[in-house]
Amino acid sequence: MIVRSTAEITGTTRDVAGQGWRSKRIVLGGDGVGFSFHETTIEPGTVHEFHYRHHVEAVWLIEGTGQLTDLDNDVTYELGPGSMYLLDGHERHRLEAHTAMRMMCVFNPPVSGQETHDENGVYPLLAPAAQ
């Protein structure tokens, strides 16, 4: 059994920040469960383009409001607390935070924990490190 809190992750290598976003990686590939689980926060007024070419991601918005644009299909969705989106087709997407957003995210295959987005918003596919 694994029990962790975001408080104990804060400030460790599992706490990864980029420009306008922060990801607390609660469960990682090295945990050996076949997925990774993250708490992600997005700063208000920021815009981010992502493309998880190697991963399927499910996102559940807990707090905040924003807009999600599917850049592959030119469709836009308004997001609020309780919204969920699933990137099951590896869609390129833009996320615009109207307010501070807090989300719970699941990745498959799991991330190793040290990935950062490249110039195209893509995470590389890395082998999970043992935890």
Largest sheet: 6 strands, antiparallel
Strand content: over 45%
Task: List SSEs in N-to-C order.
Answer: HEEEEEEEEEE
- The level of helicity is under 10%
So what's the overall shape?
Answer: globular
Structural class, judged by helices and strands? mainly beta
**Strand segment count:** 10
Radius of gyration: 14 Å
What is the tally of helical segments? 1
Strands across the major sheet, in which order?
1-2-3-10-5-8
- Overall pLDDT confidence: 90
Instruction: Give the terminus-to-terminus CA distance.
Output: 14 Å
Low-pLDDT windows of residues: none
Key descriptive features of the protein:
131 residues, mainly beta, 6-stranded antiparallel β-sheet, 4-stranded antiparallel β-sheet, 1 helix, 3% helix
How are the SSEs ordered, and which strands pair?
Elements: H1 6-9, E1 15-18, E2 21-27, E3 36-42, E4 47-51, E5 56-63, E6 66-70, E7 75-79, E8 84-87, E9 92-97, E10 101-108
Antiparallel strand pairs: 1-2, 2-3, 3-10, 4-9, 5-8, 5-10, 6-7, 6-9
Textual characterization of the structure:
This protein has 131 residues and is mainly β. The protein contains 1 helix and 10 strands; from the N terminus they run H-E-E-E-E-E-E-E-E-E-E. The chain has a 6-stranded antiparallel beta sheet, with no helix packed on it. Strands 4-9-6-7 form a 4-stranded antiparallel beta sheet, with no helix packed on it. Strand 2 and strand 3 form a beta hairpin. The longest helix has 4 residues. The radius of gyration is 14 Å and the shape is globular.
